[in-house]
């Protein structure tokens, strides 16, 4: 939960980072240090052990550069930058989730720019797609990249994170570069293995910073093999402290590595002016979804109850039931394609944008669900109306982004599905249609169909 905000391609060479002067140092944090678990980590929230995975935590220490804008930054994203300052010391932390058996690691590492919109690290993309990462044998690295996240770690568990220090967010871009450098250079992080592909990802506020990173820093550092920019608005984050970021920013088309822009329904009005589909940029807008949803909120609430990061651990509540559409299915599929794309495979299939009037009003069907966009079976065979926004709640600003779920009336459900067999048949057909369109993975299709088969629809 965060603040808002087929083309065939040539093989991509894995970039060699033009790194800062010295390589960052990696030091393991003892599992039992401080309170005994990583803040915002999976311990006690997800059973990684039964999935054959382990969670480990490390300090990353080095000296980071800051960057400054050169010339006018126009909305085509072809931005020039220069190193502004050097030798800025920092120590941050990495949360690593990897296969226990290194032989099961398939070579892909997802590095997430942890979101700090609510003053604490939140691993949004991990919370949505951890099941896919585990199925695929990926490794995951969550990076405390910004000052707010670092400061919160120290306040929540000073004994564990006493050494953590990030002087300002201007360091964040080089810290994110050095995280990728550390992943490539330290087999210890991956159970003795080295990666084949390193993908950078970030959601919402982190997506804005990742937009700036892709346009201004990746061409200099060449640290990542591809990017997932999830839940962005049209603007981009500033490159330095005390400056204003670009108000309109497409992803530069000469980047040399693929970029997947993945948007919820909440995001499209704020990003419609920078929609892109190019040989190296693919945009999906997922109809019926919200900037953050019940699936991710469940994991966040569990971690917050353990860490007591916000509201002394109380669960986040809103005026109406939170959006429960299955955004995670689209994100899982997007990661599958981005991995393939970064390895030199075909680009993801295109997707029709969400239908809008003048880029301001989302067009809807008779059940008030959005038209167009990536269509998942839970939307095409609905039991509810899914809205991109909510209201009220006990965390200021959060519910605006969490969306709503409004169940259809029993009469409407019986009109759509006079018996259970009709519901299951329609749902299965919609799931198969999404698989054929390339927007749903077979394992998620099977999970979705099993839910439909078990659902009491229509009600007795």
TrEMBL record:
List, for all copies, the residue spans of the domain called Alpha/beta hydrolase. Answer: 29-450
Q: Which Pfam families match?
A: Abhydrolase_10
Q: Which superkingdom, per the lineage?
A: Bacteria
Cleavable signal peptide:
1-19
**Which UniProt keywords are present, listed alphabetically?**
Signal
| Protein name, as recorded | Alpha/beta hydrolase domain-containing protein
Lineage of source species: Bacteria, Bacillati, Actinomycetota, Actinomycetes, Pseudonocardiales
